[in-house]
Design a protein that fits this description.
This protein is of the alpha/beta class and about 280 residues long. It contains twelve helices and twelve strands. The chain has an eight-stranded mixed β-barrel with strand order 3-4-6-7-8-9-10-11, surrounded by four helices. Strand 8, helix 8 and strand 9 form a beta-alpha-beta unit. Helix 3 runs parallel beside helix 5. Bound molecules: ligand C2E and magnesium ion (3 copies). Keywords: Coiled coil.
């Protein structure tokens, strides 16, 4: 059972698709085949640097072209996690994103930053460090160009183990970001201990910021916190000019969202990166 969302781009499989339903069994076998055949594509959404007015990096967002339509990562990443298919899939994403960034850099004369989302299981799995190292080596990308996005909930079940993993990743030279910041349960004392470079303010705070003074206050506080801790700060889900103006006035370093650019195939990046946002 599927329902259409958004501009008909995705089919969302509904919650009642339980473990044994026929739809789920089929989706699982399709997913297994897609992983084996590398039947995925990465789309990219650039991030605009508000100081320079230029796009300087991009986030990889996986897409699965499926016979039933595009399946959203919100639906198949959890399934990939349950089935452990996330391990080979995650390794493919890391490698593909690094290779794409290097190829784009050859066209632009400068390699853009590339942000890659990690999933919870991928983050906990012991092979993660090796798969990151392999992606860096095979693409020959400068490690500091790569930023791995993790969420607070991924690190909170075992904070000490998570800090070890984060340190091992930083030792490879890559950057770390906390995605969807503000929606999880990490405390400020943990934030101080996490060796991260970037906070991405969750889009639920951005959505109503021009109408909701509490959201606006939270955003200002997160920007101030990031500055005090020497962290880069990105606002995600920027859809309106009013939001962009607010974020610029409050010195948010980078912004990302449909207003600036929707996620698109790598082929659409050169035009964006060479033009900037006007
Ligand atoms: P996320 O990392 O927080 O990614 C942002 C999501 O918001 C993306 O949805 C993006 O298309 C969407 N978005 C961007 N700008 C706007 C905007 O202005 N308004 C609105 N309403 N939405 C916006 P997407 O691509 O469906 O991804 C959903 C989530 O799935 C991601 O959230 C991330 O957690 C996960 N995901 C996506 N790609 C990957 C991947 O390669 N690996 C892993 N592990 N997870 C991924
Ligand atoms: Mg993300
Ligand atoms: Mg996010
Ligand atoms: Mg999000």
């Amino acid at each position: 059972q599927a329902k259409e969302l958004g501009r008909g781009e995705f089919r969302f499989f509904s919650d009642n698709m339980n473990k044994n339903s026929a739809a789920r069994v089929r989706l699982e076998s399709d997913l297994r085949r897609a992983v084996a055949e590398e039947g995925f594509v990465l789309h990219y959404q650039p991030k605009l640097d508000l100081e320079t007015g230029r796009f300087s990096s991009m986030e990889a967002l996986i897409r699965w072209p499926h016979a039933d339509g595009m399946v959203s990562p919100a639906d198949f990443i959890p399934l990939a996690e349950e089935t452990t298919l996330i391990v080979p899939l995650g390794a493919w994403i890391l490698r593909r994103a690094c290779l794409d960034a290097v190829a784009l850099g050859e066209r632009l004369g400068q390699v853009p930053g590339v942000a890659i989302n990690l999933s919870a299981r991928q983050f906990r799995q012991s092979g993660l460090i090796d798969s990151v190292r392999t992606a860096l080596e095979e693409s020959a990308i400068l490690p500091e160009k790569v930023e791995l996005e993790i969420t607070e909930s991924m690190v909170m079940d075992d904070v000490e183990a998570a800090i070890d993993t984060m340190q091992a990743l930083r030792a490879l030279g890559v950057r770390l970001a906390i995605d969807d910041f503000g929606t999880g349960y990490s405390s400020l004392s943990y934030l101080k201990r996490f060796p991260v470079n970037t906070l991405k303010i969750d889009r639920t705070f951005i959505r109503d910021l021009t109408r909701d003074s509490e959201d606006a206050a939270i955003i200002q506080a997160v920007i101030a916190l990031a500055r005090a801790l020497n962290l880069h700060v990105v606002a995600e889900g920027v859809e309106t000019q009013g939001q962009l103006v607010f974020l610029g006035e409050h010195r948010c370093a980078s912004v990302q969202g449909f207003l600036l650019a929707r996620p698109g195939p790598i082929e659409s990046m050169p035009a964006l990166f060479s033009k900037g946002f006007t």
